[in-house]
Structures are given as structure tokens and as C-alpha cells.
Amino acid sequence: MAKVKYAIIGFGGIAENRIAKEGFGCDKSRFNGLENAELVGAFDVNPARKAAAEALNLKWYDSIDAIIADKDIDAVYIATNNASHASIAIKAMEAGKHVMAEKPLATSVADGTAMVKMAAKKKLSLTVDHMMVYNAFNQLARKYVAAGKLGNVGDSCFHMEFLFGATPEEAATWRCSKIEEMGGPIGDVASHCVYMAEFIFNSKIASVQAVYLPKTLGIVAEDGAYIKFTLENGQVGSFKVAFSEARGGLIGTLSNLGFEIYGDAAVLRGFGTMFQLSGTPDEPYAQRLELECAKGVKHLRPRKFPNIYQQIITKHAQSIIDGKPINAEDGLRNLRACIAMHKSAKSGGKLVKVK
Prior knowledge:
Blueprint: E1 4-9, H1 13-23, E2 37-43, H2 50-54, E3 59-60, H3 64-69, E4 75-78, H4 85-94, E5 98-101, H5 109-122, E6 126-128, H6 136-146, E7 153-161, H7 168-171, H8 174-177, H9 185-201, E8 205-212, E9 224-231, E10 236-242, H10 250-256, E11 259-263, E12 267-271, E13 288-293, E14 296-300, H11 308-322, H12 329-346, E15 352-353
Parallel strand pairs: 1-2, 1-4, 2-3, 4-5, 5-6, 7-10
Antiparallel strand pairs: 7-11, 8-9, 8-15, 9-10, 11-12, 12-13, 13-14
């Protein structure tokens, strides 16, 4: 089979700069494109986005239906508002299109389940953009934990805390104002913490306990949350997520997006590795991974830094070529975990199982 041909539905800033330019390599000044996948078209409800798409030599479609009806399109990348992911994905899969979607997979368990079932029924590849597991530093961290380099791990903490929503413009965005779209720190960034914890420890989330942070922002959504989690293998840890925490600027904010993993022999810390970066020299922050023991701190550095978006797109495309469809059950489980966090926080921190 030739390259898998994709079209993006929802051509906003992330879709343009991360998915199109980086993931599919449309920025020819930085990337050479992918061996097994090609982005050929795009659509957005905002017609002003047409110029940005055509600047990347993409065909502009006049509607979602036009993309789905195009027999030359093998797969779609859905980057629309969260509540529309399910309806668009199901419509695309009914037409035989493979699907990649921005997280969250859907905004309800019922919709997410319908997507997963449809993909299985039609034998189509469905995945959600959990891209941080492809970060070379995070993959190295997983190897160090699995190899016992930290000794017995007793605790961990994953951070995604920053300031967003302090201005009227930010407060009006979906991340701060639309609970139904999974807005708020839990739906927006705790979701990243969930799949990262599952990846680092190679085990699924079993239960959570959560409390909301004190209200200091004038936003509809929660300001933040402190979440305790337990994995199926018994490993415990916490997530700290917030829109209400000022970190002093870009460097302070990016360095905070990471984790600490506490073993009885050493502590492993990731700085800036839980973000949209891949670790290359041209990025605005130099990510790092540190192993601290009694003898001091050792800086761990991967040998290669593949683009995180290219990795997940390549995997999806190859599953199509090989006829071995992948299913977004991890995205559905992630959605269940975020919903469980809200349920726990609303009950005062009671333990809620993730089913």
C-alpha cells in the first residue's frame, strides 16, 4: 500500500503547528515528511483558516462531509471542539475512514464506548493523541523504573500546573468556561497525567481520590485539583493540576510540567517532559531528566529525539498498512479516570474506582 492519506478536520493552532507542520512534516524547513503517511487536506468551520492550510499545500475542503465522501482520503485527524469528536469519528468510521483524535476521545463514556465499538466492528484503526509517551526522556524514565534503578518506588507526583484564565479573554475560552467540553484542569491536563503514569509504571489506573483547589480565579471550571491515584499493580502517586498557579514566566512554567518518582535508592525527576516538546535543540526549553541518589545528581540524556507527533502518526498509519487496527481503549479508560476524579472531588475526596 502507498502512503496513508489523511485530512485534518478542525484546523486550529494546534492542528496547524503541531499536527500538520511537525507531525506530518509539512514544515519542509524542519522536516522531510513521513515514510508511510501524508497529510493532503483540511477543513475548519472558520473559513479564515483556509489560507494557513493552503500555505502548506493542503487541499481545502468546504465541509466535513466533503472529506468523508472523498474516496482518496484513508484517515481523518479530528481536532475540533471536544464534544464533536464522537459524532464526527463515528460518521467517518461508518464511511470506512480510520480515525485519530485529539484528547479527550469523547466527552462522555457512552460516546467513547460507541467509538471504540464502531472501530472494532469496522476493523478500523482508532487512536487518541496521547503523544507524551513518545517523548524520548519519558521513554528513558520508563526504562529506568522498570530496570529497578530507583530501588523500590514508594511514591510519585506528576505536575501540570500553570496560570491560565486570569484574563477575560482566557476565562472565556472553552478550557475555562465549558465544562461540557471537558474544560478545566482535570479534563484538559490531568488526562495527560493519567496516561503518563500508566506508561511510566506499565499499569492501568485502578482508583482515584481528588479534591478541588481553593477558588481564586473567576472561571467557570475548577481552578485545579490534587489527585491521589492507585494503579492495578499497587503503585501509588499523585497528580497536581491547576490553572491558578503562576510560575514566573515561560521557563518556570515549562520546567514545572514534569514528574518526580521516589524510590528508596534514588529519585527520578523530569523537567518539561510533559508538554508538546520533543527535546530537540531548536525548542524554547531544554528538557531534562535527572537521577538523584546519595552520590549526587546524574543527568540522563537519550541518544535520539524523534518528534512525538510524528511517532504517533507513524504508528497509526503503519497499523493501517499492516491491516492490524489499533483501538483507543486507552483513551476511553483515560476519560473514565477524569470523570472519576470529578466524582471524587464532588464527594469530598472519597475513593472512586475507575471502571
